[in-house]
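Standup notes, protein team

Yesterday: finished cleaning the Paenibacillus haidiansis set.
Today: Shikimate kinase structure.
Blockers: none.

Input for Shikimate kinase:
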Amino acid sequence: MHTNQDIIVLIGMMGTGKSTVGAHLAEATGYRLLDLDAMIVQRAGYPIPQLFAEQGEAHFRDLETAVLCEALRMPGSILATGGGAVLRERNCREMLEHGWVVALSASAETIVARVGEDSGRPLLAGGAQARVEALLAERKHAYDFAHLTVDTSGKSPDKVSAEILMHYRG
């Protein structure tokens, strides 16, 4: 094992497969699946789009950091993060310190095909294709700190899972 914490952290843009691959990894390892966005919703008591709208992105990011730090102290977990969890330096340091970080990537076309015009994704409002391309460019190097990067375009969640576990188990 690569980490004494036994936590696999999945990072990457929305639509790269973090939740889906996370579920497959949890099944394969027997670890519990933690979905950071779901944990934030549970803590806040209302959906992320509402959190963004009413409290603003800064408040959301503060909550995200707090919940992330708690989740990273739960060994035997697969942690699927939100796409923007890497935007704070502290979050990246915490992930590296307490988990084994895997960045999932995908082409803009793949992401748009997967998430489309999802109204539950505040950052995609107004033209998914253009927004996804802009976000990919903006976050081009945001995921570079990961221990492993896996492109999920055109691969089944099982195949991606197997690839991750092959590296994780060394």
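Follow-up from PR in the comments: DSSP finds eight helices and five strands in the chain.
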